[in-house]
Amino acid sequence: MQLSIISDCFEHTSVSGMLDACVAHNVNAVELGTGNFSSAPHCNLHELLQDTALRKRWHAEFQTRGIRISALNCSGNVLDGDIQRRNKAQKVFTDTLQLAALLEIENVVTMSGCPGEPHNNGAFPNWVTCDWQPEFQTLLSQQWDQIVTPFWQQAASQIAQYGVRVAIEMHPGQVVYNPYTFLQLNQITGDVVGVNLDPSHLFWQGIEPIRVVEALNRHIFHVHAKDCWINEDELRLNGGLDTRHGNGTARAWGHCLWGEGHDEVYWATFVESLRRNKYSGMLSIEYAGDHETVDTGLATTVALLKRITAQ
In this model, does residue 139 exceed pLDDT 90? Predict the structure, then answer.
């Protein structure tokens, strides 16, 4: 397994600055945000697709430093009920597939999307989290039948046409947020769509990431290295579903760097499970700390991952 860094933590630096930082941390791969939820400025899709010479010069900056692009990340809501937001997200998704094909990058990371209400021109995403009230089941069926299935059937054809793979991040607030919902989507798309396994989004749902590795094995295309701390007392009182925002101490959980929520022994077991299930791809570090501590946090995380992957 190799290490990668997601470029969003370098959002205030140039392409050259971002690449120099990867070299400084002795990491030879980077996962690039291409838009939608990513604000990193390192990959201008429109310019890179329109200007072949620019694309070659841009890509040469990576190659001359020995940095490969591990994945392109266009995570966004491709099923948004608001037509302008949906069209924009889908355009970024399609353009990212095209750029990945041109650069011969295997993996595109994204999210599955979350529709609104099909019959009421619902402009806001509506994520159903339980089986009751009865109307929830009707809404879920309509979302999957009328919105999720048509889009992802067409997307699967595009993905195959471009000769790439799409790794879906199982993320709460989206229609795919756990193994069960991913396998629903996989029935629609076939194996051009797999999983971007980010453990941090599983812990607070009560899902055990190592169990997920065993269950999804060949479907795992990409892995994000991000942790999650849990306040067990608050979890017992108010649970993991919580509308309180941010990474403060009010709610029961928050994202953090590998090793800050679960110890090195846990992550060594997780990596061994990945190996046992034939995963040999990237561990892509998603920085989850204060911007002022990026260098320190990355150094600590890289050191931890190198110890674990060397075992």
Answer: yes
pLDDT tens-digit map of 238-276: 999 998 876 666 899 999 999 999 999 999 999 999 999
pTM of the predicted model over 0.90: yes
**What backbone torsions phi and psi does residue 144 show, to the nearest 5 degrees?**
-65, -45
Q: What is the CATH number of domain 2-309?
A: 3.20.20.150
Lowest mean per-residue pLDDT among 110-119, 214-223, 242-251, 291-300: 242-251
Q: Compute the Cα dihedral for 33, 38, 40, 42 and give only its sign.
A: positive
Residues in the chain: 311
**Nearest Cα residue to 179 out of 216, 148, 205, 204:** 216
Which residues partner with 69 through β-bridges? Answer: 30
Rounded to an integer, the average pLDDT of 222-251 is 89
The two structure tokens encoding residue 13: 């630096």
Domain boundaries, the chain: 2-309
Token pair, residue 229, equals 């701390």
Q: For residue 24, what are its two tokens?
A: 């400084």
Neighbours of 235 (CB within 10 A): 16
Tokens coding 165:
């793979």
- The full 3-state SS of the chain, as one line of letters, equals CEEEEEHHHHCCCCHHHHHHHHHHCCCCEEEEECCCCCCCCCCCHHHHHHCHHHHHHHHHHHHHCCCEEEEEECCCCCCCCCHHHHHHHHHHHHHHHHHHHHHCCCEEEECCCCCCCHHHCCCCCCCCCCCCCHHHHHHHHHHHHHHHHHHHHHHHHHHHHHCCEEEEECCCCCCCCCHHHHHHHHHHHCCCEEEEECCHHHHCCCCCHHHHHHHHHHHEEEEEECEEEECHHHHHHHCCCCCCCCCCCCCCEEEECCCCCCCHHHHHHHHHHHHHCCCCCEEEECCCCCHHHHHHHHHHHHHHHHHHHCC
Query: What pLDDT is attached to residue 117?
Result: 87
